[in-house]
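The data layer described in this paper is built around a simple, fixed record for each protein. Such a record has a labelled line for the sequence and another for the backbone structure tokens. For reference, a complete record is included directly beneath this paragraph.
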Amino acid sequence: MKHLLEHDWEIIPAGGATGKAFFASKNNEKLFLKRNSSPFLAVLSAEGIVPKLIWTKRMENGDVITAQECLNGREFKPGEMTQDGVAELLKKIHESSPLLSMLGRIGKAPYKPEMMLEEVTSALDEELASHHSVHEALEFLKSELLNVNCETFTVCHGDVNHNNWLLSENGEIYLIDWDGAAIADPAMDIGPLLYWYIPRTEWNHWLEIYGLEYTDHLQIRLKWYVIAHTLLAIGWHKNQQRYQEMEFWIEFLETILHEN
């Protein structure tokens, strides 16, 4: 990685499960480097959704390295997810024709609810699937599958956790880590964001900023997708032997299932 840059650059791993990301710094200049990012990154940069793409270089072994502007800023705190700028940026993403076109060109097919249900089922071992709350949630996903149809699929991020939202020192908002991007029902993003971060009394305001009316059909879609996300989280944490986190998501699942 270091030979891509001039001398005197300090390069350190940026963390993450893949080990493909690095920070490079020299004097007051900082770059975020990543190995084999999707071509999608260039369009995200052009749309102002991620920090600016500086350059792309192909290595002799075929790897492609991208360098992005490394901004002075920080991750969002959970309580900051209520601000209007989050709804506005997500709306911009979901309505972006260039993003949708690029995902189609790189071979992304629509990610339909039945595909997500299949992924959820595969993520749960026999012990989890027999847990009373997990079983109840699976039955809900199956029974409501035909009721979550959506006419317009959009580009969805797939993981709207507050750690993926960045606030620059100039107040600009970015959404990063697009490895899980999909063409899907926008409720796949909106559902988790609302359930995780937005008080129920503020849902109508949030949806008004985004540009949606809170209908019975939308409510079912939001609940369906947040339950699906939650079951995936439960299965993942158990597979990683992170049992405390698994129990947290099981408790969260129970609050959704028994909401009024």
